[in-house]
Amino acid sequence: MPFYHRMGNVPPKRHTQFRRPDGALYREQVMGTKGFSGIQSILYHHDAPTEIAEAALLGERAPRYEAPGPLRHRHFRTAGLAAGGDAVEGRRYVLGNEDVRIAVASPTEAMAYYYRNGDGDELLFVREGEGAVETMFGTLRYGQGDYIVLPVGTIYRVVPDEGAGTRLLVVETNSWLAPPKRYRNDRGQLLEHSPYCERDIRPPGKLETFTDEGEFEVRLRKDGRLHAHVYARHPLNVVGWDGYLYPWILNISDFEPITGRVHQPPPVHQTFEGDGFVVCSFCPRLYDYHPQAIPAPYAHSNVDSDEVLYYVRGHFGSRKGIEEGSLTLHPAGIPHGPHPGKAEASIGKKETTELAVMIDTFRPLRVAEQALGIEDGGYARSWLTTPPQP
After folding, report:
1. What confidence score (pLDDT) does residue 300 get?
2. Paired residues of 269 in beta bridges
3. Which residues, other chains included, contact 16 with Cβ-Cβ below 8 Å and sequence gap of 6+?
4. Phi and psi, residue 234, nearest 5°
5. Dihedrals φ, ψ of 43, to 5°?
C-alpha cells in the first residue's frame, strides 16, 4: 500500500535486539515483494515463523477447464449455487488463465485451518454478509461491499458471522494488486483526481498475539498445488509490525464515480491493477448530461482483453436476463454492447443504481468445468432482434 502503518510493539531501530519479558529474543521477519526492491513490512514474532513440525502435499488445486469450443458470450448464474464449506475449500471456480482465477464462495463455517497464497495477492469482494478475517497482521472486520486485499504470503482465515450469509467473489492472482498508477504520484500517494483516497482504506483494526502451543495447520497454495504445514505454536504470534505491506479493505461505496457529458469508457471505473488484469467498480452514479447523450454503453470490441462482469445489485440498464450474482464473460475478438432496446430505453435517464465488479484480463480466460452446470446456455443469442428460423 502507498502509506506506512504500524501496529503493536516494535523496537526503535530495525534489525536490532528486541526481547520478550523472559529475556528471549522476539523473532524478526522481513516480508516484502519483488525481492528486496518492492514494498515490505517487518513483523516481530513471539516464536520463530520457521518452526514447521510437519509438511505434506495435499495435491493439485488448479481448476479443470472445459475443452476448447466456439468463441461466444457466456453467462453464469452463481446465485443458484448452494452455500456451504469455508472461504477456501468452498470456492467454486468459474474462469481462469495464467494470471488470475475467478471463483465464488458462500461459506457457512469458519476455516478450521489457516491459509496463505504463495503465488500472489488475493482479492475477496463481499456481495453479502459480515464476519472477520484473522491475519498475522491483525483482524479485519468485513461487511457488504468490501474489497478485502490480502497480500501474497499473508496467513489468514475467514470467520463468517453466524447467520450473516456471506457471499464472496474471489480473485486469486499470480502477482500483486494496487491502485492504478495514474492515480498515484511518484511517492505512491493517491492524487486528488483519484476516485478514492487513503482515508477510505481500512487497515487491520486489532492485533492479537497468540502464544498457544499444540498443532496448527497452515495450508499453502503454490504453483497449482496445495501444501499443509503443521506448526507446534500458533501462527498468529506477531507482537508488532510496521511497513507498507499488509491486508486492507476498501468499500465499493467509497469509490467516487467519474462522470462526463457523454458516456465514459470503462477505465474511469478502474479500482485496482495487477499483472495481466484490472478490476473496476461500476457504482450508482449520475448519467451523462450532454443534451443528446445516450447513457447506455456503445457496442465495443474487446480487441485486447476478455471482460468479466459480476452483477452485485441494482438495475442493470444495458442487460436483459441478469440477476444478482450473475457473472458474464465477453471474450476478446468479438464485439458486445447493450441488449436490443436498451440504448433507446436509456435516453433521458438521469442516473443508474447498478452496482457491479468488472475484471478485464489481457490473456484469454477459460471456463472451469465447475461452472458449466450454472451456465445460461441462451446468453450468446440474446442480442438477436429476430429469432432464427428453423
Report:
1. 86
2. none
3. none
4. -60, 135
5. -110, 145
* Rounded Cα gap, residues 156 and 272, in angstroms: 21
Helix (H, G, I), strand (E, B) or coil at 307: strand
Measured CA to CA in angstroms, residue 65 lies from 94, 151, 292, 297, 365 at distances of: 9, 26, 45, 31, 10
H helices of the chain, in order, are 342-346
Q: Confirm if 67 and 368 have CB atoms less than 8 A apart.
A: no
Q: Which of 148, 162, 169, 167 is nearest to 109 (CA)?
A: 162
Give the separation between CA 187 and CA 191, rounded to whole angstroms: 10
Q: What is the pLDDT of residues 279-336, one digit of tens each?
A: 999 999 999 999 999 999 888 887 789 999 999 998 887 888 899 999 999 999 999 9
What is the three-class DSSP state of 269? Answer: helix
- What would the DSSP string read from start to end of 331-386? -TTSEE-PPTTHHHHHTT--EE--EEEEEEESS--EEBGGGGGGB-TTGGGTT-SS
Per-residue pLDDT at 318: 83
- Which residues neighbour 199 within 8 Å (Cβ) at sequence distance 6 or greater? none
Higher pLDDT, 387 or 292: 292
* pTM of the model as a whole: 0.96
Q: Which residue is it, cell 492504478?
A: 180
Please give the mean pLDDT across all residues of the chain.
94
- CA distances for 195 relative to 22, 127, 247, 306, 372, angstroms: 49, 21, 20, 24, 36
**Nearest CA among 343, 281, 288 for reference residue 311:** 281
